[in-house]
Amino acid sequence: MKVMTYNIRHGVGCDGCLDLRRIERVIRQEQPDLVGLNEVDIHFHRRSGYRDQIKELALNLGMEGYFAPAFQRKLREPVGQYGNGMLVKHKVLEIEKIRFPGYGDEPRSLLALRLCTEGREFMVVVTHIGLSPWIRRVQFNRLIALYHQYNGPMIVTGDWNVKPSHPRIAQLSTFLTDVQSAGGSQEGTYPCSKPKRRIDYILCSQHFQVEAAWVCKTPDCPSDHLPVVGVLQWKKKC
């Protein structure tokens, strides 16, 4: 199973140009089974042409698209939304959406899908962790609670705005594997032009074996982040 996490910055590259086709090409080149997306617009703003980005990407890539809004704009119809999305090839059994208030930071959301592949169920999560310590604590605590509540195979993706040395990453690493690190890569993901910071993650539970992981090089910088890809296999015994 190939998993990707990608903060697409609503399709605006480092050159300031909006071009969702560049994002699409990056995803198509990797042919992932799951893609966690951050900073996705749906009819949100003129910056993205008021388009439904998750619908366009899903349609053009032959995948199913799901979305969890972090906040909305009701200045026009249809209502504009901004948040996290997921593109999947597997059968979706259940969907959960969680919103976090901003309280001085940008509002955030979490999207969790329960999927089935190879006759086995698992949960995949995408979220975008906030910048303030308060909202980070709330989001990480909710993520940990979700893991223990589900108590099954899980994959977590997203832009978390913290380095691997952050205490919260260390806390999660007691029960989730940092896929990029396990795959032998420590490359940065931000900013795209000079990626010095690793802040985008794929984590997985002990039910999966990490076969490989890498940061995708995108010379034309269709976003300010680089995507991370991980190849996972089910373990025979967990």
From TrEMBL:
GO term, biological process aspect, one: GPI anchor biosynthetic process
Pfam families: Exo_endo_phos (PF03372)
Protein name: Endonuclease/exonuclease/phosphatase domain-containing protein
Originating organism: Kroppenstedtia pulmonis
A Gene Ontology cellular-component term: membrane
InterPro entries to which the protein is assigned, alphabetical: Endo/exonu/phosph_ase_sf (IPR036691), Endo/exonuclease/phosphatase (IPR005135), GPI-anchor_lipid_remodeler (IPR051916)
Domain Endonuclease/exonuclease/phosphatase: start-end pairs: 4-225
Recorded GO MF terms: catalytic activity
